[in-house]
């Protein structure tokens, strides 16, 4: 019977066959220990010289790293194993013998590993990070589907910038100018006016020449948009969503978190509601913490966000930023037009902003004014203006950066390990 490593617990004391790769091995006299992986998990196969034919034992001893095989044997309980089970091997069928596999158990430099990313993702830690990424995606779909959201796919090729920045990838669209999307948000607003509550999940692109551990050139965003939802209601949805995702990872990725040696005690505290601090109060907090140069009206950098997050034991919302440093579509705070109804959600442990969100301007005349202030061409944005012209309603939305969230929950230092094939300032290979 052919089974997967993930399912071996169903076959205790039974003989099964697994298609696998040899990730590592060691042998001692009359016994060989095979570290097997099949994509669903990792497991040890024990080959005892006295229990198998001589050619099987010699194959086990001489097989090379990352060779592929069918391995057959009995599944037995092993409490020392992270999986809880191992295989007592009875036979091996070699499928393909790998030679000179470049990533050996020794230490390798980051650039070498990134050059071999197509192979590096086979390793136990990288496998764990990407399994956690998958769980975040799975639980995201579950949360929004269970709460009545419709998934809508915005275009990747657009005729304009979503946020009015110049950090865009430009291309020709036949005889027109076009850009790779930096956000699906504007299109999601249109979708919300048709479906009420929507979300998207897809790649976005920023031509930002940044080399920090928090930035990628291509990254994935989860962007919900909700009609008839104000800013305060949106904050509640955000904290419920993040809490749901974190608890899902804790429940369903125990082995992966163990492999990464992730301290889960802080993640276990991530349950709604989350603390909130206004931008005004955040400025005072930073000055008290020694950031004497920060002035009202300036955006926060990574050191500022980390210092603010250290004051709380959960993710924290920083609310009501100055309008001048935020996007043109954000709604002003009533009675205080110099600040807007927005929030950034800052993850603990130095991982920075994982969500940016706001209530959107729903007044046609104010949006026209914003167009003039930001020199937005009416032709490229006419359709967006029409959302305020035909049945405008209060609406809010947010975007969660998947890779930063994966980094935070996995406990890895750099977002380059949180996406299968990262695109960085100096990397387009593999």
TrEMBL record:
Describe the reaction catalysed, as an equation: tRNA(Asn) + L-asparagine + ATP = L-asparaginyl-tRNA(Asn) + AMP + diphosphate + H(+)
Q: Name one Pfam family in it.
A: tRNA-synt_2
Signal sequence annotation: none
Q: Where is the Aminoacyl-transfer RNA synthetases class-II family profile domain?
A: 130-430
Report the GO terms under cellular component.
cytoplasm
Where is this protein primarily located?
cytoplasm
Give the Enzyme Commission number: 6.1.1.22
Please, which domain of life does this record's source organism belong to? Bacteria
Task: List, in alphabetical order, the Gene Ontology terms for molecular function in this entry.
Answer: asparagine-tRNA ligase activity; ATP binding; catalytic activity, acting on a protein; nucleic acid binding; transferase activity
Q: Where in the cell is it found?
A: Cytoplasm
Q: Does the keyword Aminoacyl-tRNA synthetase apply?
A: yes
Q: Under which main EC class is this enzyme filed? A: ligase
GO BP annotations of the record are: asparaginyl-tRNA aminoacylation
Q: Which UniProt keywords apply?
A: Aminoacyl-tRNA synthetase, ATP-binding, Cytoplasm, Ligase, Nucleotide-binding, Protein biosynthesis
The subunit field of the Swiss-Prot or TrEMBL record says:
Homodimer.
Family of the protein in this entry: Belongs to the class-II aminoacyl-tRNA synthetase family.
The record's PANTHER family line, in alphabetical order, gives:
ASPARAGINE--TRNA LIGASE, MITOCHONDRIAL-RELATED, ASPARTYL/LYSYL-TRNA SYNTHETASE
HAMAP family linked = Asn_tRNA_synth
- UniProt-listed NCBIfam families: asnS, PRK03932.1, PRK05159.1
Q: What is this protein called?
A: Asparagine--tRNA ligase
Organism from which the protein derives: Ornithinibacillus halophilus
- Gene name of the encoded protein: asnS
